[in-house]
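In the design runs reported in the main text, the only information available to the sequence generator was the tokenized backbone. The following block is the verbatim input for one such run; it is reproduced so that readers can re-run the procedure and compare outputs position by position.
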């Protein structure tokens, strides 16, 4: 028994990811040996995020991320962080729509204690009312700071809740306040036993490791954790959007803001790379089309940004604009639409966009932590831990015709949702 080798993936010209599976419980392991420095990034990716939640119980994936830093049957409260800090390691975690992951960046000699602690909380977490109430208050305060009392956070939540009518992407990762307040201890225990099983997880280990010692330690710590029946996800398909949706909210902001969301394909779709490059042409830096036109020439916007979502299922192409004082949201939208309707990107624009996107991707790979995060993300969202390099190849093959095609297919006003933040109007 133990870990069996089930394949490998080239990671750039000189490196390789090896894939293993623990036969006792189905735990996946991805290892990239990189001895450039005596450090290791150890990450645990769980295939669960806010998309897996249900109506009335939103926010449980994020709340549970907080609970995972509590006590276990063998580790008192606070001991997990204390032991990692003593070993010179740093830890963190994140939850989003498609995933939850836990990371530890550590000196190589601290690998054993890290494995012990991570395996321990995967199976032996203690969930009690006192801990739940403490973390619930932390999350509620986080929601107040990042959503309720934050203009951009409130607008982004409205954008997703109006753009999606059926898919789980309509649920904010932090959860709705009433739902967070109502989550019970039994809800949390059920969530833990359902999704925090080894057969729903993938370990990513990148850095200066001795593979033989690594396997021995991993087997001794994880092999006795039982697998669990992971429920088949029944995700309703989002119906096509046939007409523009608009929502207006009033917030204490000095000038109007606009958030737009055009429905966009999943990250694995062939249209995704050209959309990313078109977004760069429109919003990437001071030389981009929207920034040049709205900020410099017309002087009606103080800030413009755009982003194509990197999601497992079809998501949004998000755009955000902040008006200058005295400029209406309608004028801002009118000017944006004028830019969006002028297609015909040039070869120089395409090359600039490609260079900027490639540079940002390659910069991520400078550290063990950056490599591990890309491996875990690509494995969870694209089922290919080395997909960052196939993405680079895809960007290199995008043509001007591809850019024109995806604009025609994804920039129809009828498929967009518009959130207007207006300091002058009453809430609608």
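Verbatim output:
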């Amino acid at each position: 028994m133990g870990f069996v080798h089930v394949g490998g993936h080239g990671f750039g010209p000189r490196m390789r990811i090896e894939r293993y599976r623990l036969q006792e419980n189905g735990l996946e392991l991805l290892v990239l040996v990189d001895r450039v420095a005596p450090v290791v990034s150890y990450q645990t990716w769980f295939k669960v995020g806010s998309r897996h939640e249900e109506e009335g119980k939103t926010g449980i994936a994020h709340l549970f991320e907080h609970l995972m830093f509590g006590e276990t049957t063998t580790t008192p409260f606070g001991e997990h962080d204390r032991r990692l800090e003593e070993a010179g390691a740093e830890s963190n975690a994140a939850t989003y729509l498609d995933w939850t992951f836990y990371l530890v960046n550590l000196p190589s000699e601290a690998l054993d204690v890290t494995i012990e602690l991570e395996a321990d909380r995967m199976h032996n977490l203690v969930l009690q009312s006192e801990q739940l109430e403490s973390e619930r208050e932390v999350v509620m305060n986080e929601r107040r700071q990042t959503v309720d009392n934050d203009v951009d956070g409130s607008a982004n939540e409205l954008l997703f809740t109006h753009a999606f009518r059926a898919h789980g992407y309509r649920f904010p990762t932090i959860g709705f306040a009433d739902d967070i307040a109502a989550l019970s201890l039994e809800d949390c225990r059920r969530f833990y036993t359902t999704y925090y099983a080894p057969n729903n997880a993938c370990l990513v280990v990148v850095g200066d490791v001795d593979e033989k010692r690594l396997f021995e330690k991993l087997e001794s710590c994880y092999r006795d954790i039982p697998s669990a029946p992971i429920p088949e996800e029944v995700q309703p398909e989002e119906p096509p959007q046939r007409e523009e949706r608009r929502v207006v909210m009033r917030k204490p902001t000095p000038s109007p803001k606009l958030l737009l969301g055009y429905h966009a394909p999943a990250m694995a779709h062939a249209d995704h790379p050209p959309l990313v490059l078109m977004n760069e042409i429109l919003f990437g830096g001071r030389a981009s089309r929207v920034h040049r036109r709205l900020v410099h020439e017309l002087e009606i916007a103080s800030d413009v940004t755009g982003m194509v979502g990197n999601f497992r299922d079809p998501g949004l192409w998000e755009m955000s604009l902040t008006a200058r004082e005295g400029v209406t949201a309608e004028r801002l939208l009118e000017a944006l639409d004028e830019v969006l309707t002028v297609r015909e990107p040039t070869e120089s624009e395409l090359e600039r966009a490609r260079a900027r996107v490639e540079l940002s991707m390659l910069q991520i790979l400078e550290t063990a932590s950056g490599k591990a995060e890309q491996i875990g993300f690509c494995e969870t969202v694209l089922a290919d831990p080395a997909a960052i390099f196939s993405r680079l190849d895809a960007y290199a093959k995008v043509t001007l015709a591809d850019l024109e095609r995806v604009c025609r297919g994804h920039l129809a006003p009828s498929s967009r949702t518009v959130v207007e933040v207006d300091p002058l109007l009453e809430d609608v």
